[in-house]
Amino acid sequence: MTSHQLLKKYFGFDEFRPVQQEVITSIVNGKDVLLLMPTGGGKSLCYQLPALMLDGLTLVISPLIALMKDQVESLKENGVAAAFLNSSQDYALEAVTLNQCRNGELKLLYISPEKAVTLKNSLFSDIKISMIAVDEAHCISSWGHDFRPEYQQLHFLRQQFPDAPMIALTATADKITRRDIVAQLQLKNPSIYISSFDRPNLNLKVRQNVSEKIKLQEITDLINRHKKDTGIIYCLSRKGTEELAEKLKDRGVSAGFYHAGM
After folding, report:
1. Is the CB of residue 139 less than 8 Å from the CB of residue 63?
2. In this structure, is the dihedral angle defined by the CA atoms of residues 170, 173, 191 and 202, taken in order, positive or negative?
3. How confident is residue 260, by pLDDT bands cut at 50, 70 and 90?
4. Between helices 20-28 and 45-53, what is the axis angle to 10°?
5. What is the band of 147 on the pLDDT scale with cuts at 50, 70, 90?
6. Cβ burial, residue 72 (10 Å; 0-12/13-18/19+)
7. CA-to-CA distance for 172 and 161, rounded, in angstroms?
8. What angle do CA 156, 162, 165 make, to 5 degrees?
9. 39 with 196: CB under 8 angstroms?
10. CB of 110 within 8 A of CB of 63?
11. In this predicted structure, what is the pLDDT of residue 214?
12. pLDDT for residue 256 is more than 80
């Protein structure tokens, strides 16, 4: 089937979004790719669709357990054979998934970087890998804001599968981080695609040396200008989220807090 036929059959779309078809063509032709695309721009399709066009298993490195689960469930609903491996599974379920890989029953396997490193000597030795996708690839760089140590060990994938095209995907990478991604993953003369990041609905302002009193007043004023809307305020610490929520509640704002300790 052609890429357009697969797009319609498995994903329900008539046309590709900007950059998607170029990326897919590069991968199917065996080229490495570095893709920068804003969240919601359709990054996942850029490796999910060529996975259906290539013979073998596509390995998807993802650090987000919840996202793995959502994407695998969505793919399965669309008729695509997919599964995931991460720390949320027990040994029995992991064994079932590994057997599916070895028997050629899956087209995509989502796997956490930690699990990939742990299983590198056993999982990949007897499985035909057709393509490797590294999602949230900025995590591989010490310059990336979400650095994960296991990402820096993923170069073993290039050494183990030198002929499999590799795509690194991120929505967050400046020039230094992009160079670091290419070097760390040992991408071979990659095609680099940067989708438009123009988001006219977003407005960014940076303020320095603002007192806590003025900061609280400005936040309150902003909330009052959007009385019918909901919003998210990011803080630097767990304590900061709790304290700000209490201060806002004291000012009559319906506020709560959420952090990693919950």
Report:
1. yes
2. positive
3. confident
4. 40
5. low
6. buried
7. 26
8. 105
9. no
10. no
11. 95
12. yes
Q: What percent of the chain has pLDDT over 90?
A: 70
Contact 37, 47 (CB under 8 A): no
Instruction: Evaluate whether 119 touches 145 at the Cβ level (below 8 Å).
Output: no
Rounded-to-integer distance, Cα 193 and Cα 23, Å = 7
Amino acid residing at 231:
G
Q: What is the mean pLDDT of residues 177-187?
A: 92
DSSP the chain: --HHHHIIIII--SSPPTTHHHHHHHHHTT--EEEE--TTS-TTHHHHHHHHHSSSEEEEE-S-HHHHHHHHHHHHHTT--EEEESTTS-HHHHHHHHHHHHTT--SEEEE-HHHHHHTTTTTSTTS-EEEEEESSGGGGSTTSTT--GGGGGTHHHHHH-TTS-EEEEES---HHHHHHHHHHHT--S-EEEE-----TT-------S--HHHHHHHHHHHHHHTTT-------SSHHHHHHHHHHHHHTT-------TT-
Q: Is the pLDDT of residue 31 over 90?
A: yes
In which band, very low, low, confident or very high, does the pLDDT at 1 lie, cut at 50, 70 and 90?
A: confident
pLDDT tens, residue by residue, 53-90: 999 999 999 988 889 999 999 999 999 999 999 888 88
Largest Cα separation within the chain, whole Å, is: 63
Cβ atoms of 233 and 219 closer than 8 Å:
yes
d(CA 33, CA 43): 12
Give the N- to C-terminal CA distance of the chain in Å, as an integer: 47
